[in-house]
Design brief:
By secondary structure, the chain is an alpha+beta fold. The model has no long low-confidence stretch (mean pLDDT about 85). The protein is built from 3 helices and 4 strands, in the order βββαβαα. Helix 2 packs antiparallel against helix 3.
Amino acid sequence: MKLPRRFPAPWQIELTASGFKVLDATGQALAYIYARETQQQADIAKVLTFDEARRIAVNVARLAELLEGKQTSAHLEHRLLAKVTAQVCLV
């Protein structure tokens, strides 16, 4: 019998050209959240804006540690948002 796969915390958010990618602690991609710069572009492509995608990515990344109960959600959200903000500034 095969053991279930593990996706160790902390999960991280990586900014990509087309949105955000959520990665586990080993670098395994867990989720892609696609986005466009403007609401009009997002509507045409039927995806999210970057702000909407960022909020979704942060909440997906919070799941691992919330389920483990290691950190408060406010502390984790602050840490993830700081990292994403730094990545956005680099682009």
